[in-house]
Sequence to fold (255 residues):
Amino acid sequence: MAAMLDHVIAQVLALQVRLLACRERLAGDVDSEALHDLRTTLRRLRSLLRPLRGLPGVEQLEEAARALGALTTPLRDREVLAAYLISQGYEQAGERRLEGRAGIFTSVAVSRQLTRVLAIIDTFPLFLRACAREGLASGLGKRIDKRLAKQWRKLQKALADPGHDRHRLRLLIKRVRYGDEAYPQLMHAGKKLQRVLKRAQGDLGDWHDRMQWLLLARDHADLAPFKRAWERQLHEAEQKADATLGALQAALARR
Fold:
């Protein structure tokens, strides 16, 4: 138990450092990847926390991380679309979606959502040590292992459903992938399976982007020229994702 608790605390401290660095990068508009890195760090934090539910402080930190994720999702979606438009030679349409970026980044850096995450995470290791002293963290390794195994079973069940929901599969794949990365010592996935998970997440991400962009095209006239291409790409992304999901299902059956 002590080794697992030490692992969790070390991970929390490392993620805290990354969040602080992201805050400074956002405040200074240092680079275009700051928002993406903030969201990736949040995802890793939430994956670390999910199997710890029930321990004091976990629910509050999860809720704070969720709120920060909700704040930044539309901002990141806009960045991704802008980058695509610029890459296709539509600089004006892309740059229009990046207008005021420095102000937006600063607003995230000083937001109450990020401030709350950093305030809670600062004291979180103390909560965990207190839990250990009170005996609330006994059997922590087994508890985490059991909860991660449950996530894998949910994914397998969803993959076996002929009418599977790609949105839900994308979420479940993220959970098992980042959960495995958060607790590698439990060895729920080898390198080959992790590669298939990453490919499936990427393929579903391409599909998700086209779905989102087609919805935006209904209300944004400057996106109309892309509609036909996105419809074609959506169909191609569906086929590619389904093939990868089939490979993932086979890999899980051999696991």
Notes: The chain has ten helices and no strands. Residues 80 and 209 are 9 Å apart (CA to CA).
